[in-house]
Design goal:
CATH topology: Arc Repressor Mutant, subunit A
Strand content: 5-15%
Strand order of the largest sheet: 1-2
CATH superfamily: Winged helix-like DNA-binding domain superfamily/Winged helix DNA-binding domain
CATH architecture: Orthogonal Bundle
Number of helices: 5
Length: 134
């Protein structure tokens, strides 16, 4: 089924996984995260590695290892996590990438995608990891 906004599995793992890490009383490992999210442990490991490199979480190897937040949950918003995985969201007026070469005088979508993308970015910025800990 198509939808206007699609989250990749990696983005979903990143946001949900970060919340699970924040909820954990200590380190939480890839297996626990993958079982809880119903995702491949290899995919979870790859996403967590990226969040570690971006400085949102720390990792510790070994039998008692796993992941822990590097920053307070109140200081991490969904947009940061989303963009750490997907790259910076571009707010454009044309979803077809035709801003400067469109042959029509009036946008056939009336620039609705610009507003939707802006609203989506504002929403992601407004949601912190801490808001989902209870």
């Amino acid at each position: 089924m198509n939808s206007i906004i699609n989250f990749s599995e990696a983005s979903s793992i990143a946001i949900h996984g970060t919340i699970l890490i924040a909820k954990s009383s200590g380190f939480i490992n890839v297996i626990k995260i993958s079982e809880t999210l119903g995702s491949s442990k290899h995919h979870v490991a790859k996403v967590m590695q990226r969040l570690t490199k971006k400085g949102y979480i720390d990792s510790l190897r070994g039998p008692n290892g796993g992941f822990i937040l590097k920053k307070p949950a109140e200081e991490i918003n969904f947009l940061e996590i989303f963009e750490a995985i997907e790259g910076k969201i571009k707010i454009t007026s044309c979803p077809f990438g035709r801003e400067n070469i469109c042959t029509f005088e009036k946008c056939i979508l009336n620039n609705v995608t610009n507003k939707m993308t802006s609203d989506f970015v504002k929403y992601l910025q407004s949601q912190t990891i801490a808001m989902y800990l209870s």
